[in-house]
TrEMBL record:
CDD domains with a match to the protein in the record: CLECT
Matching InterPro entries: C-type_lectin-like, C-type_lectin-like/link_sf, C-type_lectin/snaclec_domain, CTDL_fold
Protein name: C-type lectin domain-containing protein
Pfam families assigned: Lectin_C
Annotated coiled-coil segments of the chain: none
Sequence ranges assigned to domain C-type lectin in this UniProt record: 1-113
């Protein structure tokens, strides 16, 4: 699903669910373990609620709060073609995931969270 479709899908779940907002290193490590364990499928890219605002600052769409913690790949966010405005976990052949900015309209896996 695209970012918008993924968010709408999360919001259909009970309990006020939305795309995940990653506030702490502890939460990031929990999610890393979960998506790494699940990676046998084709989820090399896993969307979060992270978005870029009009000033270029990053925030979690599900909470409205700016990032308090980040886990970018080196060289990211790189805003390819000036069009990358959502945040994903991106799997690299080095064997782990870190964060990358990505175009919002492409279809990938995603993570929901119940606050
Ligand atoms: Ca969270
Ligand atoms: Ca990028």
């Amino acid at each position: 699903m695209t970012w918008a479709e993924s968010r709408a899908n999360c919001k259909r779940l009970p309990g006020g669910a939305d795309l995940v907002a990653i506030e702490t290193q502890q939460e990031n490590e929990f999610l890393l373990k979960m998506i790494t364990d699940l990676r046998q499928g084709n989820c090399a890219i896993v969307l979060t609620s992270g978005r870029k605002n009009s000033e270029g600052g990053w925030y979690w769409a599900s909470t409205g709060k700016p990032f308090s913690y980040t886990y970018w790949w080196p060289g990211e966010p790189n805003n390819v073609e000036g069009a990358e405005d959502v945040v994903e976990f991106y799997y690299h052949t080095t064997g782990t995931y870190r964060w990358n900015d990505r175009r919002a309209g492409q279809k990938f896996c995603s993570l929901c969270e119940i606050p």
